[in-house]
Each structure stands twice: as structure tokens, then as C-alpha cells.
Amino acid sequence: MLIHKKKMWLLIILVMVQFVHASTNPFSQISIQSAKASCKKHGSTKDLFLFQYVQNVNVVLADNSTIDADRLDITFLGRGLDAQGKKKGGRATLDNFKKVAFVGHVIVKNGNRIVHADRADVDVANYMCTLVGNVHVEQAQQEQKDIPMKITSTRATINLTTKEVVFEGSVAAPVSTVIALGDKSLFGNKAKEQKA
After folding, report:
1. Closest CA to 24 of 60, 67, 63, 61
2. If you count Cβ atoms within 10 Å of the first and of the last residue's Cβ in the chain, which end, N or C, has fewer?
3. What is the DSSP letter of 83?
């Protein structure tokens, strides 16, 4: 599935963990819900705003992917936009989003994949995302081609352009990967043939 550059900011979260597999554009509709929400001027820059969603934040995308967190902070530059969020040549672009941070009990779900972390920070300008604290990535077997696996680390850095993920750990808490092959063999059917 081709994903056009400069789509809504949530695209970053899904691409970072390679969750975009459905034929539906997940960003054709985005719903954000929380117990409380606020918008205030942020910093000394004239048109910089902080949108903050707190308590039971739930983001639902068009493909039914979800992102849950305790808090969602969006730093947004409104320069050149009218009250409806439109620029003279169209709508706000990804360039208007300066920072996106999901904080506290972050859970991203899409089909048979789930990611947990304490925090997810998105560097919009550099197309990078960093998952920090208690990072757990899990894929269950939903289809025959799926290989169940679990990866845990203290930190994961994702290049959203190349899709490269670097997991980091320490001596006390190393990166751990568990792959459940079950009856599958890395060497094809030869292992089954040798048993017979």
C-alpha cells in the first residue's frame, strides 16, 4: 500500500511499527477522545499552541487501529492558518505539527499486532519516533503466514522513512526476542520429511 508523504500526524505512529496493512487509508478519519482536553498558547512563539488530551485518551483510525494513552500532547504551529485550519493553498500539513507525544501506558493495536510503551515521542521534522520505557512488541498468529513473536526492550528508535527499528537494552535489562515457530521450520518442509 502506498502512503503519500505529508498525511495526518498519526500516520507516523502506525508506520513506525509497520502497522499499515489495510487497504483503507487509516487517516481518512481520525477520532480522538479523552476525559479532558485543552488548547493553550505554548511558549513565546506567537502561533504555537499545545493541544493536550488527558485521562483515558483513545485514538481510533479509519482502519480500526487504536492508540491509547494517559495523555496526548500535540504542539502545533498555526501560522498561516485560518480558524478552520486551512491554509491559502489547502489544509494544514504535517509541517504544522511540531511535536506529538503519547505519555503513560501507551498501547497501539492493529489486527494481530500490539505495542506497549511508557511513552512515544514523534520527531515530525526528522521522521523519527522513539518509544521509551517498558517497550513490548507482540505479534500473534492470525493468519498462517504470521509468525508469533514478542520483543521487549527499554527503548526503541524508529526511522519512519526507512522503517528501520533499533531496539536498545542494557546489561541488566537486555533486548529480548521470542519467536514461536511451532511446527514451522526455518528450513522449509525438510525437517518434517526427515522425521518420516
Report:
1. 63
2. C
3. T
Instruction: Write down all domains in the chain, each with its CATH number in brackets.
Output: 10-195 (2.60.450.10)
**What is the per-residue DSSP string for 6-52?**
T--THHHHHHHTT---SSS-TTSSEEEE-SEEEEEE-SSSTTEEEEE
Q: Measured between alpha carbons, how far is 117 from 153 in angstroms, rounded to an integer?
A: 9
- In tens, the pLDDT along 73-113 reads 988 887 765 555 555 555 556 677 788 899 999 998 888 88
Q: What is the pTM of this model?
A: 0.72
Tell me which residue of 193, 194, 135 sits closest to 167, measured CA to CA.
135
List all residues 6 or more positions away from 8 whose beta carbon is below 8 Å from its beta carbon: 27, 30, 94
Residues 6 or more apart in contact with residue 187 via CB below 8 angstroms: none
Give the phi and the psi of residue 153 in degrees, each rounded to 5. Answer: -160, 175
pLDDT for 195 beyond 60: no
